[in-house]
Design a protein that fits this description.
Largest sheet of chain A: 6 strands, mixed
Helix content of chain B: 25-40%
Number of strands of chain B: 8
Number of strands of chain A: 7
Strand content of chain A: 25-35%
Shape of chain B: elongated
Structural class of chain B: alpha+beta
Order of helices and strands of chain A: EHHEEHEEHEE
Largest sheet of chain B: 4 strands, mixed
Number of helices of chain B: 2
Shape of chain A: elongated
Oligomer: heterodimer
Distance between the termini of chain A: 62 Å
Helix content of chain A: 25-40%
């Protein structure tokens, strides 16, 4: 026999669901309102982009010309200018990190070749100028020398570095 | 069958648990742990990227607050987390791997000092000389 004040869970279960949802929603609202004003952002994309450019120009595993004794930063070995080599020396998981597009020109601005790594990110270049873009792009042109079969020639290397923002 | 009082006690317990969780999360956000984790993680990953880019051999040491621990994983990943907290609560970042290097990670988890030692095509990450 039911005492006065006894209750069946069945009658209450609908209310329970509503109350639990209410608690969850209120918790999320509190965290998001305060979280936005508390969380400090650390943007290092520009620094990472400069490191990427430096690696291409300075590392003998990438494009830098190397003799028996030393590596010549800023001198490009044309034999190293290939997609496979760049992907091996600068390898991120797809969609992570940075994408690179390198365009090599001679001193008369004739295109000698292009290589690309992390193509999914490089494909995001058109979105870089947008106000709410998730990607940050860095474009720079470096004056370089390139070794063409033992002869040093002047040229330019254009870098497009695409970074996914957090 | 339960009394109405029992049900309301249950509601109160759930509400208190939920708001305690919220306060713990808020406390973690405001005590700078999360910021420091991300800062050290980003700083270290940029240093590792730079070390991998160096044209010559180098040996560089990085020291940080030893209340944090660092874990170097596969695919050039790095996680920093507060000691005695689970690894998944840490801050993870990725560097650009150079697969031409033989990379050696040793004794990483337990120190406030990390040393990047690059010699020819061997890149070693260790905690002491």
């Amino acid at each position: 026999m039911n005492k006065k004040g006894d209750y069946t869970i069945g009658k209450e279960s609908l209310k329970m669901i509503v109350y639990l949802m209410l608690i969850t929603v209120v918790s999320f609202i509190i965290i998001s309102i305060f979280g936005v004003s508390i969380v400090k952002d650390i943007r290092t994309s520009e620094l990472e982009q400069h490191v990427a450019v430096t690696r291409m120009l300075s590392s003998s595993n990438c494009l830098a010309y190397s003799g028996e004794e030393r590596v010549f930063s800023g001198i490009i070995d044309l034999n190293k200018f290939s997609e496979e080599r760049v992907q091996n020396c600068f390898s991120y998981k797809e969609r992570e990190g940075q994408g690179l597009l390198l365009s090599l020109y001679d001193f008369n601005d004739n295109l000698l070749g292009e290589v690309e790594t992390n193509k999914i990110l490089v494909a995001q270049v058109p979105t870089c100028g947008l106000d709410k873009s998730d990607y940050d792009c860095y474009f720079t042109r470096k004056y370089i020398l390139y070794d063409d079969g033992g002869e040093m020639k002047k040229g330019f290397l254009d870098f497009t570095v695409v970074t996914k923002l957090e | 069958m339960v009394s109405k009082v029992g049900i309301w006690i249950g509601y109160t317990v759930v509400a208190v648990a939920a708001f305690l969780t919220v306060f713990v999360i808020m406390d973690k956000m405001t005590d700078d742990t999360s910021f420091e984790q991300r800062f050290i993680s980003k700083d270290l990953i940029i240093l590792e990227d730079s070390a991998l880019s160096a044209p010559y051999n180098l040996n560089v040491a990085y020291s940080f607050d030893d209340s944090y621990e660092v874990f170097f994983g596969e695919k050039c990943s790095l996680t920093i987390n507060k000691r005695e907290t689970p690894l998944y609560s840490g801050s993870i970042n990725y560097c650009a791997a150079d697969i031409n290097f033989e990379v050696i990670y040793s004794d990483i988890l337990d120190s406030g000092l990390v040393i990047f030692d690059k010699k020819e095509n061997v890149f070693e990450v260790k905690v002491s000389e």
